[in-house]
Write a structure and sequence with these properties.
Length: about 425
């Protein structure tokens, strides 16, 4: 009888512990909103910040993330109990395929953030720990506009930003303040926003009144651009700021390479020396002149040739060959024949058109069409010269391969930047093509 009593007590203990565990788990899970087609618009509209996990039940990385995400939701809600301040949600992409397609989800888990009803340009790609999530969310909940006393104090060497928006406003009571806050929140990953209250305009134009100024560091100097449109016109001001904070030509780094690669657009890259500002400026000017209409079909990028020496070596080039332009299609790399030719009208556009038409790839596999005019580049000099297709870099060892292939087929190097794409050690990748 005594044994039976002890057994009953043991079973009761197990039941209570299990119940408490399940209650805690359920409570954590309840902190995360299940986002569906019928509630996504209201969730993102009603909350200042919304952090969403796009997942699939069968994905091992999604299963590993789930309890951490739920615990983070419980913790952040306890820190910010105010209604509509922050929400954390999840989308089951097997059940809500339309939502996931609308946001171009190509891997699980994908973590996206909404600020003031707008989805942020950048995904969260940091560590998947509660501490890292909380730190990220605390940053998102800070005021996106920082008050300062002067532009000069903010541009000391230790504080200098490459590009920033400065608001010279009399006070925060101006009717367009809320609009500017929305812009600053949306673009906080691209441009910091600073406000100088009580200012009557930038130093270059004192007495102008409330003014929005964009400043960009170019070498040791700053270029200043002033918005001249009506501050009450949200769409015009938003577009003006966006065009400057998110430039047509971006710099690729090891920190943003995964994000840029995941966009899926081929790279048109200028490799240059870090202190060579002239070639970068020429590159930008010619893109605006010749191929502005290609901004949605390729990514125009600047790369520090010293940091990205491996792709250069892959092209058979070195620091001594800079500046140079190449396309990385995520299959192969193709070399623009001569940087100085970039100013020839139509030359850069033809290079990109040859990528889109498949000509660059076709030459690689099948050689030149004998009926098509060819542009020949000679690499080397004297008897050792190697004649190749204009956009196909080769090394001396390729001659024998071409001869065996019939003398016309030339092998471009394989893509190196595809190796910087999202890793299968962190994600379940849905697209199994060039990425």
């Amino acid at each position: 009888m005594m044994w039976e009593g002890r057994g009953w007590v043991s079973y009761l203990h197990i039941f209570l512990v299990s119940s408490l565990y399940l209650f805690g788990t359920t409570r954590a899970a309840d902190s995360v909103i299940d986002i569906k087609k019928d509630n996504i618009d209201s969730v993102v509209a009603q909350n200042d910040v919304v952090f969403v996990n796009f997942y699939a039940e069968w994905c091992k990385f999604s299963r590993m993330l789930a309890p951490i995400f739920e615990q983070t939701a419980t913790k952040i809600k306890s820190e910010y109990p105010q209604a509509n301040r922050i929400a954390m949600g999840r989308v089951d992409c097997d059940k809500e395929a339309d939502i996931c397609a609308a946001y171009h989800i190509s891997k699980y888990p994908s973590l996206k953030l909404w600020r003031s009803g707008q989805v942020a340009k950048k995904e969260y790609r940091g560590q998947r720990t509660q501490e890292a999530f909380l730190q990220h969310l605390h940053e998102q909940l800070k005021d996106p506009i920082l008050p300062i006393k002067s532009v000069q104090e903010n541009e000391t060497p230790e504080n200098k930003k490459k590009r920033a928006v400065y608001l010279h406003f009399a006070s925060a009571q101006v009717p367009y303040w809320h609009n500017v806050q929305r812009m600053a929140s949306y673009l906080r990953d691209e441009c910091p926003f600073y406000v100088i209250f009580g200012s009557t305009g930038p130093a270059s134009r004192p007495g102008q009144g409330d003014t929005v100024v964009f400043r960009e560091a170019v070498g040791n100097q700053f270029n200043e651009d002033i918005y001249h449109g009506p501050l009450e016109d949200y769409n015009a001001l938003n577009q003006w700021i966006y065009d400057r904070c998110v430039p047509l030509v971006r710099e690729i780094t090891f920190e943003n390479a995964e994000e840029l690669t995941e966009e899926g657009l081929p790279f048109v890259i200028l490799f240059h020396k870090a202190d060579d500002l002239k070639s970068a400026e020429i590159f930008k000017q010619e893109i605006n002149k010749q191929v502005l209409g290609e901004r949605n079909t390729v990514n125009f990028l600047l790369a520090d040739g010293e940091k990205f020496s491996h792709p250069l070596a892959h092209l058979g080039k070195s620091q001594a060959d800079l500046p140079l332009i190449a396309i990385d299609s995520f299959r192969h790399m193709y070399l623009f024949p001569n940087f100085n030719d970039i100013t020839i009208p139509g030359k850069l556009k033809q290079f990109i058109d040859d990528l889109h038409s498949g000509k660059l790839h076709r030459v690689f596999h099948y050689g030149f069409d004998p009926n098509e005019p060819q542009t020949i580049q000679t690499i080397g000099d004297g008897d050792s010269a190697i004649k190749t297709g204009e956009h196909i870099p080769v090394q001396a060892g390729d001659q024998g391969k071409r001869a065996q292939a019939g003398g016309n087929s030339i092998s471009p190097p394989e893509s190196t930047f595809k190796k910087l794409a999202p890793s299968r050690n962190r994600y379940t990748l849905l697209q199994r093509d060039e990425l």
